[in-house]
Amino acid sequence: MNKQERIQIIQTIRKQIKPVRVVSACFAAIGFLILFLTNQPMWSTFPIVFALILFGVSSRKECLEICRITNMKQAKQWIQLRYVTSFVLISIAMTLFVIPHVADVSDLHILYWYLASSVIIIMTVVVETNLDHRVRQADPEQPLSNEYR
User: Domain of life here (predicted)?
Assistant: First the structure.
């Protein structure tokens, strides 16, 4: 299977997963609205955790489908590592963003929590890019994630 055919398959997979990702984003938005607009920040954790669960399920499905289109074992391992790493880092970033509000941290310390969360988000982009290139080395016909987004 050539690269263009793989891109078409991945885009079809992403179209199927898109509704779940939209629902996940909506729950995350609801959670962050509750976090910032109410005096009950603890209630924000439920929609945010649910959003992360939905995101994790959709990422797993996407990862498994993308792994099926390559025959290279090493490429499959790099693809799986990319998805797992991204999910873990995004979960940590969102947790670091929520903790100071739930734990009632002072305003000065909230800045440090936000900074740590931002650094982890930047790390996610760097790690994903690095792992994408390793996938390409393992299977030259496998498209990079920026080629099918």
Answer: Bacteria
Give percent above pLDDT 90 in the chain. Answer: 74
Number of domains composing the chain: 1
The Cα–Cα gap between 89 and 108 comes to 24
Residues 110, 116, 121, 126: what is their CA dihedral angle, to the nearest 10 degrees?
160
Two structure tokens written together for 64: 């498994």
* Mean pLDDT of all residues in 125-139: 94
Can you give 116-146 as a three-state secondary structure string? Answer: HHHHHHHHHHHHHHHHHHHHHHHCCCCCCHH
CA distance 121 to 123: 5
Q: pLDDT tens digits, residue range 56-66?
A: 999 999 999 99
Q: List pLDDT tens digits, range 60-116.
A: 999 999 999 999 999 999 999 999 999 999 999 999 988 888 887 777 788 898 999
pTM of the model: 0.88
Measured between alpha carbons, how far is 5 from 1 in angstroms, rounded to an integer? 6
- The DSSP secondary structure of 73-84, one letter per residue, reads HHHHHHHHHHHH
